[in-house]
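note to self: the first set is below, dont mix up w the second
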Amino acid sequence: MKTLKIILILLPLLLSSSGAFASITDVDPQDKSLEYLRYIFGSTVDVITGGTGPANPDSVLGAMSQILNTGMLVFTGLIIGYVFLTGVLNSAHEGNPLGRMYSTMWVPLRMVVALALVLPFSGGYSTMQIGVMWLAGHGIGLANSTWNAALDHITGTGTLYPPQITVDYENTAMRILESRVCMHGINTADRHINVEEKPVEIVDDDQVVSVRSSGTTEAPLVPVQHRVMQRYDSVYGLAGAGIAYGAAWLSGFPNGIPRSYGSNPCGSITLEFAEIDEGTAIDTPVRSFQNKVIAAHAQLDEDLDSLAREIVLSTVDETAPAPDQTAYNLAVNNFKMEYQKAISDALSEIASARVNKWAGGNPDAAGMTVGARDAGWISVGAWYWDLQRVNAETQKMVSVKAELVGPTEAALEHDDYQSFMDGLAAYSQNMLVTDPATGTPVNALERSTYADDNATLGFVMGRVESVINFALSEPDPVAGLANVGHVIIGTFETALTAAFVSDLAACVADDTSEAVGGLIGGAARPVTSTLCRMTNKALWSLVGAGLLLIPIALMLAFYLPATPMILWIMGVAGWFVMLIEAVIAAPIWAVSHAMPEGSGFIGERAKAGYMVALSVFLRPALAIFGFFASMLLVIVMLKVVMLIFLPAMSGMIGDSISGVVTAVAMLGIFTVLIIQIAHRAFGLIHEVPDKVLRYIGGGSENLGEASQEQQSRSVFVGGAAKVVGGAGHTMRDKTRGGAQSMADAAGSGLKNAAGAAKTGMSKISKMLSPK
């Protein structure tokens, strides 16, 4: 009765678990993986999606499996006969059924199971083989669910990893506050509104167009691209100030003194937005983000206005209350919150537009007839650059450049300006700010800070740093290094073409002067010969440099960016190989259940097979984990390298004399380091499936993807070096041959011309000579 209660309690849990399992492991009959499995195993694969499969073999593996299963069935019968015979003898000898060696409960059950597993089921395959296919098929379903979950997350959050926000919220607020204090201070000292704020304007080809009236933050903005400015400008121009001053003078200056301080006397803020793809897919979210950023700056400007007035008032009136110490920090925190909300909203909208465009297929685009969700897990490696493009676009979008221009010389020369800046400085020392270490408001003088490192890396390290920054200009370091490779290749091709043309021209001139001979040829020969040798040496020096640089550049420009796809394809091929191996071994594995050794349902000999079957089931999903983990690991390791590489290299160089060789060596070390990191990181695509099952006692199923990729890399580099070397030899031969043929032609032409001239002069002499 107690057992029945336990079963009744556990049954709903088991049913719900099986329903949840089915929901995440179901496979679309049109899935590409199933399509490819049908090529290998025939239509028996339809069993995975609930079909029955063919009665007769419709694949070569099925036909061969039918014979193998028949042999294993016979072998199972022999094992059963052996166990039965030894069991009878042991029973007679020891007085126990089957003897003490065999379990009377599990051994008979395992024999029956073994017979059932090797019986033909469909298409020539046994029950055990069908079971392996079914398990692998639902592993495909689990992988597809994992892939869709990743796409859903990217669509919802807008990015694979958070973009780097370079906005200095406090600096922006302080510069606005400085401009506000400048504006209200000058107006207070002049007792007249001479400076006014113009918060939001579009700057188009240096023409400022107002899109929002002063003092309003809720008015709708027109679509904005590129540059936006808010200014603190003079109310009067020179002519207007003169007229206003004259009128005020006649009436005794009852409303203060009108003056002109020129253009933007109290500074300006210009926001420059990145120019990104403005296609219809992301046009709306990009413009929405830009408008929200502008609105956040405008709101910050308004929030700091009352504080600026308080600072100015406390400067001119000692009885006025001290400015609110919390006002600045509150305005900064509100600005930061609105700015980050604008980013998060835009990231989600842009990622939804981008991912939905290619994840479900796009028949209008070449090569995009099958989307990522349609193709399933097997195509994950093909979408690496699309995922990185989403991150690159979002990173570029949030990288808003703010140009903060302070008060001009006209404002600085105001008699009372410095007193207002002193008031601002006094407030800055006593105001509350947010401590980054604790996240709590503290006095500005008590905030945690780190000492600035004023040491310089020197000229060489500065050049190395600039090249590294160029290499890492993209959010994804693989894309940045690809850019470096393309620059090296383009520069080499241009330089090689120029050197070839120079060498050809110099050598043609040298051979021509030799062919002409005489006084002119003899005088020109030393110069042309020297130029020919110099250009030839330069050409071969450039070819030699190409032998060193081009293989590396080709690796960076083409092979390294293809590494994720290569390793992914290797991983997919490894899974197919593993599945084929498991299907072929399934009848043998089934027979191992009939072995009498061990206790329990499985037995001693069959345990290892279950670990392999679990690996077949989990490998596609684990490969996806490795794929995304590798993308994140590359970024993390890049940050580690940037943290320690330049300081370590600077310390290593020390006081040594540095030059071009040092710079090249540093860049070489950096390139090798990044390449090794990339290969180590993307190796997670196969290392995660290979090694995860070790934690439950499974063996390391190393399918050799890494070694295969390294062999491909060696072939690629070796081939590139041979191509460059062969091109150099061909260029040399053609240069000398072309120069020689051109020189021969030029020399022959000059000799013919000289002969014709000589004949003509002879005839003229005869005509003019006296008879």
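second set (the one i keep forgetting abt)
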Amino acid sequence: MRRRPEKVANLLLRAEGWVTAGSIADSLGVTPRSVRSYVSQLNARSTPVTAVESGPLGYRADRAVLAGLRGEAEGETPQDRVHSLVRELLGASSGIDIHRTAARLHVSEATIESDLVRVRDLIAGTELKLRRSGPRVMLVGDELAQRRLVSKLAHEEMDDGFADMASLRRTIGLESIDPKSFSPFKQELTTRLGEQGFYVNELAVSDVILHVAIAADRVAQGRALTGTHVDPSAQQRQVAELLDDLTLKHFGTRVGLGDLHHLASLILTRAVTPKGEALEVALDPHIESVVREAVRHAAEEYLVDIFHDDFLRRLSLHVQNLVHRAREQAWSRNPLTRSLKAAYPMVFEVAVSIASQVGDHLRLSLGDDEIAYIAMHVGGRLERNRRSDAVLTATIVCPGYYELHELLRSRIDRSLGSSVEVTAVETEMSPDWSAITTDLVLTTIDPPVPDERTVLLPPFLTDSDTERIAAAAARRRRSLRLARLRAELEHYFHPSAFIRPLPAAKEAGVIRTLGAPLVELGVIDEDYIDRAIAREEMSSTAFTDALAVPHALKMTAGRTVLSVGVAESSLRWGDSRVQFVVLVAFSEEDREAFQTIFEQLVEVFNERDSVQRLLRRGTNFTDFLDELTAVIDG
């Protein structure tokens, strides 16, 4: 487990403004008293300056100071020792001696034995094994499997955002690589790949460069790859030649053909997409067919407009690369997974649906990072259709004097035309205010009863005036979204489907607990609960730091009901901790409401103040529903 003070640091760095001790404690599954201790440790490390400010509102980070602590070692922890042990095992072809290792690390032999248990857990499910002969322990497995283990250590270091090069080098032991060489290597690789006719995925290229550095370091230790599982193609040879040049130039190592072809395969399937006709990749007809059917199903199930030829081709090419990565067991990480999940839950859900069908038909097991890349394809497609939904209508009220109203309209069109469309102009001094039905009213005269739609403006707009209009438009959009949510929620809660306190259990147990009242109501059957658990196993439904929304992928409930559980102490849910769990049982007839409820419920529970209010006051079903409505109304 990562050091708790660093987890606190990461939470504070991600937050905007103050964060309460209770909120941090809930996220970590500890007490507020422990949080105070972790903050004290962080401030002790930052002396004489203060990394974390304390106050009546909680804690707030000095971002520059706190970010600077991330690269510093805090002392040996169990995770540090395990990583150190793994590095020794990876570097010792004849194994390590437990007695000598314990003496060198100044710990007992029993501690080393305990750490070896954790090493076994770390390599479980891989092609690596620990072989024991008396006090000697050896790591057994081929070179490619050992490199994947090095990569896994690096990814553990990066999981919570601590991706500075000093920490990575310490964790995975890249002793032969100068940390200053990474940036120029990346810049030249990206530039030259672009010149050769590739689009470069900047999100994935850093991860690929880490693999290149690991390869260069292992080759420097005399541990080169002798071959790969993929026969080199013309493109692979092209990229291999480029890597041969750059690894020697920047890392000072010449790697062999086995490594070059393996690394070229990683780049071609993870970090680049051909953009010229000469580099066009042929699609596997079976993969294309599977993707087409998965997208068709998701488009119909979630009522989203994504079934387009250009989207299908791009996604099919991505899945084809994904199949190659699976063959190499070289999964691609996505640093935006957490933010995508929290900010675009519906897009992520569509991606889960596509990934589920693709995985079933192609026999792939896809994690959140791979699903997030599919979500990026889905989001990019939907963004093209989004403008008409995002534009608000507006009426300008500007009593006529020469062309003032025309100047006002022209300025608004230029500054806000992508988000606000002026559909009417009133030039009377006393317009019929009650007849104005647009989303916004932009007026140069005082309305009789100002409301949230109204923005009072001077006849000549300044930059600050356009900012006020943009802010009012954002508030209005949120108000309209939440109004839809409020109208939907009133129909879908049931008093018998509210459980507080929610018993502590693993995800499957909680889902069964929340599903039981819905089975009693005749809304769902046990099969629905099983499918909700299967959906949860595929990708965690903890979309915020407070809320999980388990559900089945298919909307087969007899009618739509939400079963709500509130935990007094936070529950572990996937890699997160939550206090609210809402089991969603949707019927096919309500599929249009799914997007509204799903996205806006996540939005409400993404606000810490709202979460704390619901925890404090929502002690029973009636109070919870009243407080949720009040929170939505703002």
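remember for set 2: The radius of gyration is 28 Å.
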